[in-house]
Amino acid sequence: MSDMKRLSTTPATHPIHPAETPGVLVKPGAEPVLKATNITKWFGENHVLRGASITVWPGETVCILGRSGSGKSTFLRSLNFLEDPTDGSVEVDGVVVSADPFHTEGGERAERIREVRMRAGMVFQEFNLFPHLSVIENCVEAPVHVKGMDRKEAEAIAEKYLAKVGLAEKRDEYPSRLSGGQRQRVAIARALTMQPKVLLFDEPTSALDPTLVGEVLKVMADLAHEGRTMIVVTHEMDFAHEAADRVYYMDKGEFAEVGPPEQVIDAPKDPRTKEFLSRFRTLGAKK
Amino acid sequence: MHEEAEVLAKSVAADEGRRSRNWQTRFRLVWGGIVFLLIAFILISLNVEISFIQTAAPFILQGVGLTLLVSAVSILFATIFAIAGALGRLSRSALLNGIASFYVSFFRGTPLILQLLFWYLALPQVGIVLDPILCAIAALAINYGAYMTEIFRAGIQAVPLGQREAAAALGMAPRTAFLRIVAPQAFRIIVPAIGNDFVAMLKDSALASTVGLQEILWRARNVGAKEFKTLQTFMIAGVVYWVLTIVFTAVQNRIESRLSAGDRNKEAKG
Amino acid sequence: MKIKSTLLALLAGAALVAGACGGSTASPSASTTAGTACEKAIAAGEPSTTLLGKICAAGVIKIATDPAYPPYSELNAAGEYVGFDSDTARETAKRLGVTVEWVTPEWAAITAGNWGGRWDISIGSMTQTEDRAKVVDFLDPYFYESGYLIVPTDSAATKVSDLAGKTICAGESTTHSTWITGGFGGSAVVDQYNEPPTGAVLKTYPTDHQCIEAYLAGRTDDWDAMAQSREFIEAAIAESNGKLRFLNEEANFAGRISFALDKSGPDTASAIVALNEIIAAMHADGTLSKFSMDNLGRDVTKP
Q1: What residue ranges do the domains of chain B occupy?
Q2: How many residue pairs bridge chain B and chain C with CB atoms within 8 Å of each other?
Q3: Is A168 an 8 Å CB contact of chain B?
């Protein structure tokens, strides 16, 4: 089903299965948007990531599942170097940055990290809106001061995305006057205004009141169906099932199972995935 | 039923208003009473001569301008030193952090009057002669800068880490993130502290009288000594300082309430 | 005006320069000499490295005084410096051909020397002593002053020896405190008439006035006697409502009161010559006597 969706956005050619991710259909000659290889992270004696790799193709929505403490957030934050990995490398839209555990590389690497960050928009669990700036100012701050975009132009783009997340009329409000769900939707619009190649979501609904989760998931599902490239770390099983093209299951710092949601969620093969999902089902059945 | 609730709500509100007004009245009465007792005590015990006060007070008041000038210039430079100091204390560079932490330790760890005498008496020995007013400003600004360094550092650190992460994730360089995201938020935390320090500095500037600066306290001592009435003139000086602090505390409150207008500085977590 | 100029000084990062060119245009004074001392010094090629050269080049003389001692030195409500010292200082500057800038440091800072160029001269009733002469150069005296004792009216003491072992108050770094602790026996510049009381204990305050104020405020056990000049004691007695009196009419010592220059500063030799000429002229033409009569009502300018 999800493959059909992508086909509709790339109708000109017959899809193929690239060697890195068998089972995924992409346009011939297409390059992955994001490719992370052998991401390894030590926090002191703690081996948090054990060589996790991921490849994400244009238009794909990838969900990363896993229990708390499995390292999935750390992995996501390594993709834009908010966590500096101990080993491994990340390539986003042609920009490659490798781990530099001994800080031997200088400002040139920092510049490339900024290039990666400009191409990979991030949405945080805690929103992290800038409280001293209005909604519209939150959105145009980086396009204007990082990309050097004309303010008028940036505002036009921001307004488009605010309308998309349903908050056009809140453009001049301050974050403190918005609900949690509205804040997270502004945070999504802020990330989109940078016109990134890929969106990274770090448990975007975990800090929300249950009643406000739906409005955020709906916006995210819309983005997924539109063909945005997204990586979503989440506990929302229904969302993963409905919106993801592929699901990665992380356990103890490595990916235990990868595949379409119908496989990983409905019929897991790996015993670790099975155990995790069985607990989920029990809980789900109780509701 | 609905109307009844409305009537009840109105009478509750009226009662609250009444109690608040009552409280205000009693509060003012307490102040008035204390001030009255204070004045009575002074008049009875200190043998105050109104005619003397009439000649001494204008002489003392001529020092207000200098006191304000010294305090204002000093707080300005103290703020600059504190920004530099706070950045140094937060710096990963051992050199900058070392300099900044020494600065804080040394200038918080020695008496202000010693520092003033250092600028006034020690520097000329190596050929640097600062005007007394510059000595006073140097001493106050550097000393207060050391105290404010720690406040500024705390203010900067009080900005949640998530703010820096969000800025970084948008591709901002650390410098841009600091100037555009962290500093404006830290500023709101810091402003009340600057106001407090200015009020404190108004009073500490009296130390400048020891290097012959003709500010409020120098004038009080001088005009009082001539007629052996410094006790009375110190009282006048005390009132002048007190009134100044009341005025500037009011100014400070207005600035603070303006800064927090619209609740802009609060983003509830979660 | 003071604030304005200090602001200027701040902004310019420079010392006060008000009236910097006033010197050369000052008209000759009523004195007999043609031309001011500075005009003559500059004509004679005085280098600007000496104290005199520096003062003349700046056109300003910075004079230290403690203006809390009427009728010698006082800052009045109009911001003018008045009194015998102030008149003398202004006249001296006029004869030099420069304008006056007043500096008002604490007394102890003046007598300690090492002024660091903050002021050029002390014209503030400083009595010559051998100790002070180690750090400052004294000029010829412009007046003479004697030290007296003041006691509570109910004191049993009537002569200095009655105060043996008692506590005597004086201002810090004053000649009066020096007399109490050791006297001026053998001094070439202070004429001692009475030895200080044996075993007397000195109590000091930063200024002389605080001795009197402490007593009048009720701290009557602070001291048994206090040493100061005649004018000061007269003013204190007037303020005391009959609580204080002179010990007796006898002066204990008499001092030569002089201008002082900083030994650690620029070369003072030419300034000493020029200023001593001016002082001699002010003695000779009756200027000092007139200032004394105007301010004190008696002539203190003769030994």
Answers
A1: 68-269
A2: 82
A3: no
